[in-house]
Amino acid sequence: MAGQDAVTIADIRAAAERLRGQVEETPCVLSRTLSQITGAEVYLKFENLQFTASFKERGALNCLAQLTDEQRRCGVIAVSAGNHAQGVAYHAQRLGVPAVIVMPRYTPMVKVERTRGFGAEIVLAGENFDEAQVEAQRLQESRGLTPVHPYDDPRVIAGQGTIGLEMLAAQPQLECLCVAIGGGGLISGVALAARALKPSIELIGVQTEQFPAMYGLFKGVEMPSANATLAEGIAVKSPGLLTREIVKKHVDDIVLVSEGDIEHAIVLLLEIEKTVVEGAGATGLAALIRHRDRFAGRKVGLILCGGNIDPMVLADIIERGMVRAGRLARIRIATRDVPGELARAATVVAQAGANIEEVEHQRAFTTLPAQNAQLEMVIQTRGPEHIEQVLARLREAGMPADLDPY
Prior knowledge:
This protein is an alpha/beta fold. Helix content is about 45%, strand content about 20%. The protein has helices at about 10-20, 30-40, 55-65, 70-75, 85-95, 110-115, 130-145, 155-170, 185-195, 215-220, 240-250, 260-275, 285-290, 290-295, 310-325, 340-350, 385-395, and strands at about 30, 40-45, 75-80, 100-105, 120-125, 145, 175-180, 200-210, 255, 300-305, 330-335, 355-360, 370-380, 400-405. The longest helix is centred in the middle third of the chain and has 17 residues, at about 155-170.
C-alpha cells in the first residue's frame, strides 16, 4: 500500500461512467449569504438531494455494479444503521440483487422500515455496530454473501470520489474542500479526485469532538470517543485501514467542531438555504464558523453529505437555535401577588411587540418577600436588542425584570 494508492483517478472516472444517469449530479453553487457570514466564498454541494438523501448511494452503486454474475445471484450484505443501508438496499433492488442489511437492535424503526421498503432483508442484531458486524460476518460466510463495506473498500471510495470530479467541474476555481470524516470513505475519494485534477487544492477534514478517531490518528494523539453525537453519520470509533492511509497521504489537516457548532450550522442551512441536513451534513459549515480565520477570504467547497434527520431532533435544534439567536428568551418578572398583575405584565410585553409562548406564576419557589410573586415567561422576540427593550418596558411599569441566563 505504501507509495501507491489502492484507488486511482482512473478508478474514479470509471465510477463516474457507471453512475451516470443512475444517481443525481447534484448542484454545486455559491451561497452569497453564508459567504457573508463566514468570511469565506462558500460553495455548497447538495448531496442531500440524492434519492435516499445521502452521498452513500454513489459508493454503494459503484460496488454493486462491479459484482460478478455469481455474486449478484447470491446477494450482498451490509452493516449499517443509516445512510449506507438505504443506499445499498435501494440500488440492490434496482439491479435485482438480493440484499441483507444487518442493523443494531437500537436502530430507530423509521430507519429500519425505510430500508425494508427498498426490498432488503433486515436482520437486527447486537447492541452496537461492532456486535452487528459479528452477525454479518456469520451470515456472509454461511450464505455466501458479498460484503459492501460502508467506507473501507476501493470501489466504495472510488464511487464517493465522483463528488470531487463534479465539484471541480462545476467550480474549478475552488481553493479548498472541507469534508466530513467518519470512517473516511468520502474524504478519501474526494481527496484523490481533487488532488489529481488540481494538485494545489487544500483538503481539510472535519470531525466532531465526540468522535475524533481519524483526527487522533492524523495528529498522533490518543483521543477517546463518546457514546453519542448529533452527527451520528460520522460517529465512527475505528476508521478504515485503506482510508487512514489515503487521508495521511492526501489530506492537509483535520479540524474538530462541537455539538453546538453543528446545531448552529443546521439552523443556518435551513434558514438561509432552505435545505435540511443531518448533523454530518452540517459539519463542513460548522468548521467554517468555528475556525473562521483559517478559511476567511478563500473559495471553499462544502459537501452537504446527507439530509436524513429525525423531525423531532430537528424541531429541538431549531428551538435551541432561536434561543442562541436571541429570538426566544426566558425572562423573570417580579410582581405583587395581587389580582391583575399577570394580565398587566402580559399587556406590557405585548405592547413592547413580543409574543408570549409560555408563562409560569411562582409563589413558593422564590426568594421574593411574602405577598410577592415571580413570573417566568418564554417570549418570542426579534433579537437581543428587542429583549432589552421588553425588559426596559417592564421595569418602567414597576415590575423588575431580568433575562434568565438558564
